[in-house]
Amino acid sequence: MTDTAAISLRPEDVQDQRAASRLAITSAGLPALFAEAAPGPYLMSRGALDLLESLESALASGSAAEAALLARVGRDRAQGFACGELTANERRFASSLRTLIACEEALVGSASSTDAALPDKPFPAEDVRALLSDATAAALCRDLKGYVEHYRRHADPSRRLGDSTKLAACARSHLKRLSLAARAECEKPEHATLRDALSAATIRLPGATWAGLERRGDDDDGEQPDLLDVRPEDIVGNSEVLEASLKLARSIAAFDPVAGKNPRVVDNPVLFVLGSPGCGKTATAHAVGRTFLDLCRENGLPARFRVIRRTDWASHYQNKSASDLLRIFRDEVFGFHGVCGVYWPDIGPPSPPAAIPTCAPRRRATSPRSSASSTARWAPGTASGSCSATPTTCRWTRP
User: Which helix (H) or strand (E) element contains residue 43?
Assistant: First the structure.
């Protein structure tokens, strides 16, 4: 790929793929399975129906993106009236990218269906090698069916499906693990040329843009998540903290995405602040966060300001390994496609009581989290899968 122009897909390009995606879903038997796993007053629950619709849209997006990418690769390789054949590596990358896009779009579309945490481990590479080599919509649907069927009749009654929330959590767990496996394949060294070219060209889907292996929604840039409506001029006192924070914000907002570096010297992108309750740490941090986003918007730089709540720490991260906490920085901070500021309040001893803000350009994301469903282990087996032995050793075998 040599052309850096975006690969833009029209809504009708995706729409053209929906019929095939719908056929793949019905042929795999997912509607009947979902109705059994999450029954409703009229056979299927609304949650199960929404999940199928999200899956159909996502599969169509993945198929359209793969077709457009292969068409661009073929066009860029053409010389005169001749065009070399696509290589096996190119087809494998496109197929894996299709899987990644389909899974991530489905996860975005079904995000409101459950608040269950997502797994952080991909399916073993050897188990999905054949699937990623020819990731048709039908193959993906059959794989999902096997996973859901396994949990629908799990040996442990507490893990069996029975409502739309459990069904959504199960399906999303499969999609996330498959997404991580597809990402790992795309990140292999032999795909570096295509991956780098795609980062420069991007694939523009209706509602989202993929730069390399990273997705950003049309409303990602300049987001202001849960920031107080406060500006630096509203802050009384805290002048030393405010001045240092604004200086850091201005420095980070000067990042040059084309050169891939910051022309300014940022000695320390982290500020630690200690103060008694009510002294204005949070108000100051939020004022700096809004200024940071404004500066980035003026410079045309994609930006995000992430607030790590105490409830996040106490609920999702408590009693977990340090790697669980590091993932939020790897995925939501350092994996962001622009620059990101972070406010982390009320950590408590022995960690710093407060920090404002930590800003750094993001480079790569995988966005994993933990999940009970990640304990499933897949290996080659029968077409419908099998479940073995006791609840603690129950395993699903992939075709």
Answer: strand 43-44
Across the beta sheet with 354-361, the strand order is 303-307, 339-345, 354-361
Q: What pLDDT does 4 receive? A: 60
Cβ distance 15 to 205 under 8 Å? no
What the block records as the tokens of 390 is 């006791």
Separation between Cα atoms, residue 131 and residue 128, nearest integer Å: 5
Q: What is the pLDDT of residue 224?
A: 46
What's the rounded Cα separation, in Å, for the pair 125 and 209? 27
Mean pLDDT for 231-249 is 90
Query: Hey, what are 346's tokens?
Result: 């009320």
> Which CB contacts under 8 angstroms, 24+ apart, belong to 345-352?
345/281, 345/282, 345/285, 345/307, 345/308, 345/309, 345/310, 346/310, 347/313, 352/272, 352/274
Please state the φ and ψ torsions of residue 94, each to the nearest 5 degrees.
Answer: -65, -40
CB 174 within 8 A of CB 144: yes
Categorize the per-residue pLDDT at 222 as very low, low, confident or very high, splitting at 50, 70 and 90. Answer: very low
What token pair was written down for 377? 């282990």
Read off the pLDDT of residues 6-60 as tens digits, 9 standing for 90 and up: 888 988 999 999 999 999 999 999 999 999 999 988 788 989 999 999 999 999 9
Neighbour order of strands in the sheet with 7-8: 7-8, 203-205, 208-211, 214-217
Q: Which residues, including other chains, have CB under 8 Å from residue 91's CB and lie 6 or more apart?
A: 70
Task: Quote the pLDDT of residue 269.
Answer: 80
Q: pTM of the entire structure?
A: 0.61
**Cα(359)–Cα(125) distance, integer angstroms:** 34
Q: What is the number of alpha carbons within 13 Å of residue 283 lying toward its C-beta?
A: 15
Task: Give residues with Cβ within 8 angstroms of 287, minimum separation 6.
Answer: 228, 230, 231, 232, 234, 235, 242
Structure tokens at 300: 């045309």
What pLDDT is stored for residue 167 in this prediction?
A: 95
Burial of 381 (0-12, 13-18, 19+ CB in 10 A): middle
Rg (CA), the chain: 23
Q: Which one of 139-143, 209-213, 271-275 scores highest in mean pLDDT?
A: 139-143
